[in-house]
């Protein structure tokens, strides 16, 4: 009996270390964007994205500069990266469009309150479970694979008991972002050439998320009010809606959301 128990424990230990060794990851996604526009389009704009994970650190790259060439006027022509350090509970990303793009947002990890659902879906031949949340004025769906026990995913998503293979986000302005899996690649070689802190420009300034959001949402709301006043030359206090993390105008049908 003791020998059987010992062999069982040994098998579990070996399996654990093999699994850990496999968790150098390169995951390819394609983000599809539905702007819910009245314009007739044959295909929805798509952005190639890659997630690299190793030693508790990751980098998520979004190649907007390539997508902008294929879909002119649809995207900022920027390369966007999100850098996560789970060892320090820190996350960093550019504040695109904020004060001449000179700021980097320092954010925290594991602050998403997920609700685990019973739904199951096969993605890339893998059985995935569904989790949902309303986070920073976006409605999120995430499909995660518990057989890849790493709490990571596309963009800023994290905090689930498995790798997120697909995700959907609906903004307060009804724009829908779908992160679709292309492939998962377990790597034995080091991914350090891909995983590096990308915001070393000495001109970059750090700003925490709360300060950034309070500043830019106030500015957005003021612009809405000023635009409305210029067009109507009247008080618009009854036509401006504000929420915890969203500012919108019933007249201009515009909403500011920034996850």
TrEMBL record:
What is this protein identified as? GLPGLI family protein
Q: Name one Pfam family in it.
A: Porph_ging
Organism (species):
Halpernia humi
């Amino acid at each position: 009996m003791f020998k059987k128990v010992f062999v069982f424990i040994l098998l579990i230990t070996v399996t654990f270390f093999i699994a850990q060794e496999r968790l150098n990851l390169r995951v390819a996604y394609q983000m599809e964007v539905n702007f819910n526009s009245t314009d007739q389009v044959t295909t929805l704009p798509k952005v190639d994205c890659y997630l690299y994970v190793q030693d508790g650190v990751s980098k998520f790259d979004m190649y907007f500069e390539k997508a902008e060439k294929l879909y002119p006027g649809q995207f900022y022509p920027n390369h966007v990266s999100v850098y996560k350090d789970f060892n320090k509970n820190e996350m960093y990303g550019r504040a695109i469009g904020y004060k001449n793009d000179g700021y980097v947002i320092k954010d925290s990890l594991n602050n998403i309150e997920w609700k685990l659902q019973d739904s199951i879906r096969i993605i890339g031949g893998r059985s995935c479970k569904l989790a949902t949340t309303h986070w920073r004025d976006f409605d999120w769906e995430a499909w995660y694979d518990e057989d890849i026990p790493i709490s990571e995913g596309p963009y800023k998503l994290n905090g689930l008991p498995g790798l997120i293979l697909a995700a959907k986000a609906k903004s307060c302005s009804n724009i829908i972002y779908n992160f679709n899996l292309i492939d998962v690649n377990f790597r034995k070689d080091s991914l350090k050439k891909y995983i590096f802190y990308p915001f070393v420009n000495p001109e970059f300034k750090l700003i925490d998320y709360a300060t950034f959001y309070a500043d830019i949402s106030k500015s957005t709301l003021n612009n809405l009010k000023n635009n409305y006043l210029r067009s109507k030359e009247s008080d618009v206090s009854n036509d401006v809606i504000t929420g915890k993390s969203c500012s919108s105008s019933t007249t201009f049908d515009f909403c500011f959301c920034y996850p």
